[in-house]
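During the no-cost extension, the postdoctoral fellow (Dr. R.K.) reprocessed legacy sequence entries with the updated structure-token encoder. One reprocessed record is reproduced below for audit purposes.
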Amino acid sequence: MRRTNHIPLSFTSALYNWYAANYSTGGASIANAGWHVPSRTEWAALITAIGGANIGNAMKVKGRLFWNLNPTPGNNSSGFSAIGTGSRSENGSFYGLKTTAYYQVSTYDIYSSNGVALMSASGSPSGYSCYPEETFRKVGFSVRLLKDDATDPGSYTDIDRNVYATVKIGNQVWLKSDLKVTHFNDGTPIPLVADPATWASLTSAGFCYYNNTQIVH
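Re-encoded structure tokens follow.
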């Protein structure tokens, strides 16, 4: 196994722009049938189901391998297993590895929130970040899929045959790790975009790896 730039193997999760997360050409999607990218309302239901004063800790995996903070946050009592995957800005730069985790949503609401952020401070609750709509569609966030119904299958296999464990929280079933699929569910490749200027100009689907580093294993 070869590691690059000391990034943990778990950070092979990809960052997708809004166009990729919500791709719907010819019936194709980033998610398999029976699953979808959650809406802002569905994220809110997750946070309500977890509840308590330390929602952020309840959603985070503990350890300096995943969160570069002191004291290290996280007890993962919810089983959601969030790690600090960071994000990619609308200008193509990267930020927040091991300090933040943002997730794409399917809905845009300028008066509410558009990317869910698991805040970095120990004990802080999960929150939301608002972006202008044009910016919102360009940023690169992680993706967690939500099942269409409440029956937990125990695992999910994407079209690339990556296998993800699942977890039931309240009446929702979520992936326990971030999506790293490189094709839509009809086999169409998701464009891998490394160049910052190209990323900044995208008005279509694209994905990347943090700092354009993919771990080979």
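Confidence is low (pLDDT under 50) at residues 1-10. DSSP finds five helices and twelve strands in the chain. The remaining legacy entries will be reprocessed before the final report is submitted.
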